[in-house]
Request: fold
Amino acid sequence: MNLSTSGHKKYGLFRIATGFKSKGVLLISMIVMMSGCGCWRPQKPLPPIQSPIPLHQAIDIYNGNIQSIRSFTAKLSQWEIQLYDNDKKYHFREIGGKFFYTPPGENQQRAHLFLSALRPFGTAWVLGSNDKEYWMTIELNKSGLWGKYEHLGKPCASQVPIDPQYILEMVGLRQIPYQVDQPPYPVYKIYPDHYIIEYLEPSDNGLWLQREIIISRRTDRPEEINVYDPSGQRIGQSPIKKYKQLDKTWLPAEIELNYPTNKSFIRLKLSSFKFKDNIKPKLFTRPQNPPGIEDYQQIDKDCDNE
Reply:
């Protein structure tokens, strides 16, 4: 079942009159009209490629940007999501929504995230997390799930369709480790226009590539993050194509998270970024009985009995 919807905007057409007596007036009129449409504009020159830096400095720059992030809000100018549940495809696409982020508090490991995607007559889906729990509700099919981070990855827990912390990790908003004497072991590669930081995990057959982060040598910002399974198959891919700068902080303005093994994805276009220190804590509190949701399941309930 395809539940896809789409929003469209209509743009007027401009007609340039040729009856001007002054060529200067015609030229000025054309310039003004071109500035208000989607016409060609000269692109900004690319920043120069910087001299190579060592691994510890690359990680310091990466983590330093994350440490500088304050609580912020953003609007969803466009969103699209495709999920599979028991071989059933869910595909939604619309315009509108809200994004809230608060960094981890004292003695906390995880940032707080709340994402609400809207449709013309209400909310389509909600994704949220705090330091201890995560949840997702889809109002179009009146279902939802939630779980505890302490159980994440255990055999007693069902697989998480979308983990909010995983989204943050895949768009460069979670810090990365730098311990060369314990897993995951970092490996650093330098190329003409980018760096690659690889993280290796041990197994009975040696080391395997768990994650790679591709960083531009022009900007020192991540351009793509990939995650692999022990067989070498890519199970997560996130190109980061656009950033927004707030003060000294760089935030991803376009989020694209692909799951190549099952063709699921989530795509978000963010705008109107604002630092906001007084975000209501209620947003980051898991709802006990979400309105409009008839099937709301804890996917790691069996782990509570262990």
